Amino acid sequence: ALAGAGVSFALGYLALSKANNLFVWHPILMTSGSVFLCTAAIDTVKRRKSMGKARAWMVQLHWFLMDAALIAMGLGLLAIYANKNKPLEKHFTTAHSWVGLTGLVLFVLNLLGGAATTLGPVLLCGKMKLLWKDVLHRTSGAMSYTCMVAAVLLGLYNKVVLMPEGWGGKFEIPVGWASPGKTWSYGNLGGERIVNYFMAATAVVYILAIFPVSHKAPKAKAS
């Protein structure tokens, strides 16, 4: 979580030092939502077993962080949509946007599913169910997180337009699609080396978040 916060803060600082406009808030908010807030939310769930009686509070913190991530990423999506000021069919034409939108849709569906599981029992017994396990919730959450981090990496690395004429036009993979460049990061963050550092740091944050770590509560000593 701290590593994700560091990546998000450093990216925001460097980006705003170059320009403060509507576009630049898209990567800032999206990175903050996915690399920082989502990572922190995952970390709270991984650590809940070591918290003893505070497990329910950790789950509530997980929920709060996910809501905050949704708000940040929603604002980031609005920022880029408003900045382009183009017809709807001209939006979401890049590999970066497709992967990011897939992750965001999965994120919203997973958040709604978690809310239903938590709040559903209120209708039956008047009490929330904060402690529960669901393989589908965990798997879809991991998939959405993977897509969102992948979208961050794609946005940093290059710009691959798959539908240059917009929706209704032809699909094509451009020549040099794997080459770096043609995106905001190289000019705003300080060049290719700095971009590579950000990509490596983001990948490390992802691995630390996804890799299973046991946080078991310490056993009480026998008297």
Automatic annotation (TrEMBL):
Membrane topology (UniProt): Multi-pass membrane protein
Transmembrane segment boundaries: 23-42, 63-81, 101-124, 136-157, 194-213
This protein's UniProt keywords: Electron transport, Heme, Iron, Membrane, Metal-binding, Transmembrane, Transmembrane helix, Transport
Organism: Lotharella globosa
Protein name stated in the entry: Cytochrome b561 domain-containing protein
Superkingdom as given in the UniProt entry: Eukaryota
Keyword set includes Transport: yes
This protein's record includes keyword Heme: yes
Gene Ontology cellular-component terms listed: membrane
Cellular localization per UniProt: Membrane
